[in-house]
Design goal:
alpha/beta, TIM Barrel, 9-stranded parallel β-sheet, 10 helices, 37% helix
């Protein structure tokens, strides 16, 4: 019975309305600042050396997300760090799309606790100089409360932050990170889902609008030729536009810190009673979902 109640408490702690993420809580930090700040994370580095080297030449504090166990992962991480740029681990996770190939060391939903924890630890050690991590693909895994529970437990004893790439609207990754006191934010914009200069520009302008309205915003892009060519031209113009490009950690440290909220036990019990039956077999409370 205690194990079942713990599972319910954990899920409810992730539920909207019970514990809001810091960016949703009214505070002085949410007020727009005079100089909006953006972070741009370039994903999928480690396979293509020429694309990676070109990406490392971009001006400003771009954040580089490197896939572990790729041919140039360590080389690019050291080069970025040597250039005083921020490096994060781009942790592979299974997609809901069966056509998407999972990279070496990735997480799948059929793994047990020991395998998940082992793979997370191996990936953390595979890329040097990391300041944080985000998910590579992961539309299936970031929606899995149990696996996010194991993942964040492995990260919580480190000084790392987490960025939820939001590859799924059902993702609980950001909420899970905050639950375990891991600084975390969500991606706001994908720059290059459509790889044309016009589409990248449209998404970049959306990024700037969000930052001007809220004070900060995070974009994720990839080392595609179109994206790199656009950023080579756009990033030098940010200063005259009154926008500052910063490492992702700067935004996470200010806007992504976990906030403790006392639990209203009466409200909690009402929500437990009102909860619908779980749809996913991985949330079957007749099993020991959480130790």
């Amino acid at each position: 019975m205690l194990q079942v109640l713990f599972s319910l408490l954990f899920l409810l702690a992730l539920a909207p309305g019970l514990q809001a993420a810091p960016s949703e809580l009214p505070s002085a930090a949410d007020a727009p600042v005079e100089r909006p700040r953006i972070a741009i994370i370039l994903d999928d580095l480690g396979y293509n050396r020429p694309a990676g080297e070109r990406a490392l030449q971009l001006p400003g504090q771009v954040t580089y997300a490197i896939i572990p166990f790729t041919p140039y992962a360590a080389t690019m991480a050291r080069a970025a760090h040597g250039g005083e740029r921020e490096v994060i681990l781009h942790l592979p996770m299974a997609s809901q799309d069966p056509e998407r190939r999972l990279d070496r060391g990735g997480l799948t939903d059929d793994m047990d606790e020991a395998e998940v924890r082992s793979r997370v630890q191996q990936a953390l050690r595979a890329v040097p100089h990391i300041a944080g991590l985000n998910n590579h693909m992961g539309s299936q895994i970031t929606a899995d409360v149990q696996i996010m529970h194991w993942l964040m437990q492995e990260v919580q004893e480190t000084p790392l932050y987490f960025i939820d790439s939001m590859t799924s609207s059902l993702s609980v990754a950001n909420q899970s990170a905050l639950h375990y006191q891991i600084p975390s934010l969500k991606r706001d914009v994908f720059l290059d889902n459509v790889q044309t200069p016009e589409a990248v520009d449209q998404m970049f302008q959306s990024l700037l609008r969000i930052a001007r309205r809220r004070g900060h915003a995070i974009a994720i892009g990839h080392p595609y030729p179109t994206t790199l060519a656009y950023l080579e031209q756009a990033l030098p113009r940010l200063q005259q536009q009154g926008v500052e490009l910063v490492a992702a950690s700067e935004l996470v440290q200010q806007y992504g810190q976990p906030v403790y909220e006392p639990v209203d036990l009466k409200q909690l019990m009402r929500q437990i009673v009102a909860m619908p039956a779980p749809r996913s077999s991985r949330l079957n409370f007749s099993e020991t979902a959480f130790p």
